[in-house]
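Re: the pair you flagged

First of the two:
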Amino acid sequence: PINNIIWHKHIPFKISFFIWRALKGKLPTNETLQSLGRDIVDCYCCYNKGKDDINHILLTGNFAN
């Protein structure tokens, strides 16, 4: 059912693709990059080290507000 909402003809493809990647946990956040062996970087919206996760970016961070 969620696929019918995300992949709707009135939603631009790049928005649908971004939402799909966010729901699957495939965005390049500190969590995913660290699992690939990369170093943790500062959050670009508020410069807190290690705070760059999907919830912070889309819900609680300065950029989201």
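Second of the two:
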Amino acid sequence: ECTCIMGRNGVGKTTLLQCIMGLLPVESGAINYLGHDIVTANAEKRASIGIGYVPQGRQIFPLLSVEENLQIGLPVRSDRKREVPSFIFELFPVLKEMLGRRGGDLSGGQQQHLAIGRALVIDPKLLILDEPTEGIQPNVVAEIGDIIRKLNREIGLTVILVEQKLPFARKVADRFTILDRGRSVATGEIENLNDEIIQQYLTV
């Protein structure tokens, strides 16, 4: 399943993702993942149990090569493999062509491919994407949408997507949740995201 989280501004959504990833403390409540409350687990632990994260702005390491950026996630793999999985290069052929190039020398779209590939290296069961279309040209946005659908519907990877662009969300998501000041105010199947809900919660 792919669930898209939306809202009028990014503050509540970004804070939510940072709490899920263990980057911010949780004041109350629980975070249940595979039947366990992980609210006290640190960020490294959450990666090792299969939560992949692509942050807003990509945050690749600009001075490291593409290959080195991809290799960063290998130590947390449960199977202890020390090679980047070949399917990542099937998803992103450009990364294979640029293994020796520094991450900072890539275009914005190529960096987003690298950021997603880096998250997939850990063999996640859940992939979290924070504004993956930000600053990306339209043809690359379409590519990313196709990749998300493939990961979700062919590989069976669960995806949480934070996104502002309604057409993109409608194209790739199965469900939606709208946050207002950090609280869920509307949720449901993506086909039920109608004009009334958009007008009430998403129109500025």
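The chain has nine helices and eight strands.

-B.
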